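ok so i was messing around last nite and threw this chain in just to see what happens. nothing serious, just curious
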Amino acid sequence: MNQELANQLFEVGAFMLFLDAPPNLEFGIDYNAWGIGPLFKGVKLIPPGLHFIYFSTTSKEGIQGIRTGFFHFFESKEILVREWNPEIEDLRDETDLDPDQVERLRSNIREFDRNMGPYPLDPPIYFQRWKKLTGYITPGLIRRILPNNGKVSHLPDKSSDESNIRDKRLGKEIEREEGMEFTHFDLRKSFPKGASGDEITRYSLDKSWLVKDLLDRAYHNDYKVLLGEMQLSFVCLLMAQNFSGFNQWKQLVQLLCSCPQLMEEKPDMFVEFMDVLEFQLDECPDDFFRDILSENNFTGVMLKTLQHNIPGSEPKLVSRYTKLKRFIVKKFEWDMPEEEEEDEDDAPVIVEMEYD
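result:
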């Protein structure tokens, strides 16, 4: 870090004090992780804003444990205090600590300076990437979706078990136990209550009504907050290997690819959606595409759906989609076939159903 930048952060940078850190711990913040030593006491000169702090223990045999972490919006010059709890191998929040002790620690933060590592800003590209990856996430979104002080845990991939789970209520309870409160919606019920048969057919093909309903109910009619949840769910997957985050991210991507009417009404929203999506895919390791995104041909279906729904009357959407498609083909060395005329066997079948 150059001296000018260090001086700037000295005036506004935040601190995270990490007490009683155990040996053989991997500690990370945003894109950077280290194996820490016995003298480690935390991180200083943290740029104000959103950060993800995470850690995992390593056994004597060198086997790394499950990664756990939390999101936190750091205010300028804030001093966040955390203490290791060896009984549960997790951090104690400030609410679990003696408030007088916390204040003494904050007052004497300079005593820990030599044992605190500076936030890594050299090279600055990693911080720039982090800001781009999380730029739509708001403090309110973190509080609503991660009410346990921003905490997010690793949730093992339960895909092999889900085929045996017939009770959807149980699946929802499992997610709630993990402290995840992602916005709930059902892609199969994308029409208003009491809709006519024609409306059910129309809104089942065009999910615009569902997006508008979600914007009104959950996002304060601000599509940037919706994109923030898309970013948060992706970071939960990328940084914490959280399966609930992956599931929500896929749902949101599928939803936003499926609303041609809203694309005409809010083209800027979908330009920004494709900006977010392209950057997320660019952050994925190559094997991530093969192992996760290619499952059930998710990306191929997503792109085909998006291409089919983009209105030809919106040239900036057509142009942005073309750029996205070229990026995916190049990054993942994927030979995507051109869109063909829809075969009758592939045409959607609309079945009228009764819902409670």
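not much to say yet. Confidence is low (pLDDT under 50) at residues 156-170, 172-177, 340-356.
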